[in-house]
Amino acid sequence: MLQCCFEQQIQEKCRAIQKRAMEEAVASKWLISNDTQLGLQMDEAFRRHKATTREQTRRFLEYSRRLKEEKQLEEKRREDAFEVTATNICQTTEAKQAQLREASRALEKEVREMQFEQMQKREQVRPTQPDGCPSFLDKMFARDAMESRRMELAKHQYHLDLLLQIHQRSGAATSMQQESECCDFTRPFATSQDDSGTYAHLNPLRRIATSQS
């Protein structure tokens, strides 16, 4: 009786173990299938993301390339337009300068002709000069020549005076140096009669001027 009960319990436990094993096998199979399906889905999502990223990168690079080309074309158009504008401005400026030079030459020529006509009229209005006497134009040209000659002589005289002053100063400086080298510093100080309480008599230029006077 006890043996039958014990065998029955063992059989029930075996059936429970088999049932549990079958349930675990089914659960394991489901988990494996689920994991496999999830892995496939993740791989598919990764491939789609990779393809999308690659397409976005390609579009971005294409956009950057087009933008760079458009920018270069725009800069080229601006440079061409600036060059054309600068060329037009230079040509216009040169033309205006040429017109101004031509107008200036024409005005100068007209002024000279008017001055010459006025001189001729003044010469005609003045009483006729005796034979051998200079005319008004000759006197004016002679006066201009004399004025130019006088200015040249004054300039030459100025240069001569300047050279003479330089020579006198260098000679005075040399004389003062020789006197300072040869003087005796042990003798007593002697005042000059015309110093008037000053030291102006020590100036070598004043001594030279005094000796010359």
Care to describe what's here?
With 213 residues, the protein is mostly helical. It has a domain at 140-176. Helix content is 85%, strand content 0%. It is built from 3 helices and no strands.
Structural class: mainly alpha
DSSP helix count? 3
How far is the N terminus from the C terminus? Answer: 176 Å
Task: Return the string of H and E elements.
Answer: HHH
* Overall average residue pLDDT: 75
Q: Mind summarizing the main beta sheet?
A: none
Q: What's the assembly state of these chains? A: single chain
Estimated radius of gyration? 61 Å
Strand content: under 5%
Into which percent range does the helicity of residues fall?
Answer: over 70%
Question: Are there runs of 5+ residues with pLDDT below 50, and where?
Answer: 184-198
Q: What would the principal axes of the Cα set say about the shape? A: rod-shaped
What is the β-strand count?
0
Keywords: Coiled coil
Region (Disordered): 190-213
Coiled coil: 90-120
Labels describing this entry:
single chain, mainly alpha, 213 residues, coiled coil, 85% helix
Task: Briefly summarize what is shown.
The protein is mainly alpha-helical and 213 residues long.
Lay out the secondary structure.
Elements: H1 2-125, H2 136-182, H3 204-212
Region (Disordered): 190-213
Coiled coil: 90-120
Keywords: Coiled coil
